[in-house]
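pinned: reference chain
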Amino acid sequence: MESCFDFSLCKKNGFKVYVYPQQKGEKISESYQNILSAIEGSRFYTSDPGQACLFILSLDTLDRDQLSPQYVHNLKTKVQNLHLWNNGRNHLIFNLYSGTWPDYTEDLGFDIGQAMLAKASISTENFRPNFDVSIPLFSKDHPRTGGERGYLKYNSIPPFRKYMLVFKGKRYLTGIGSDTRNALYHVHNAEDVVLLTTCKHGKDWQKHKDARCDRDNAEYDK
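pinned: its structure tokens
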């Protein structure tokens, strides 16, 4: 951590986060814009890079699947041309999707250097403890809410809400992570833990369907 992160920047001005200005002509997905807006609306945000301890790219790195319409091309060159990049030192990169079908390798298409990685579905082999951040894979429709500037709206333990865990998405029948995803069905109790999954993924999903697929698909489509 000490060799990749300059703690002196934080000691000098406190924990301040700088978001790069959006570059002309660069498109940003709604999900990434929500992340940037949440940071810019927090008490940790600074518009002065000279005051910053942590740096966040305005280039959208969430979806690095080359088949996705959200994929940002030439990201390697764009990142290296940033004058504050400094080989990624004191930077945090956000990523939800990497690689493409059928292997979904964790190649982001550019060298993150010394940057920290906040990533969904990161493998234990690539995760760097006490440096990287494991984040959940969230929907583009996930609401962005909060209380006072930079504070949680609710801080009750346990929280006063009906559902403790809710997930609705695809259940991969084969490939990386399929064993883990297919083993989580027992957590679903249809009360405070709701897991709705569909086997309908790819063109040949029916060749791999298991005994739970018909029931799961029906629950998912309700």
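why pinned: DSSP finds five helices and nine strands in the chain. The helical segments are 8-13, 30-40, 75-80, 178-182, 213-221.
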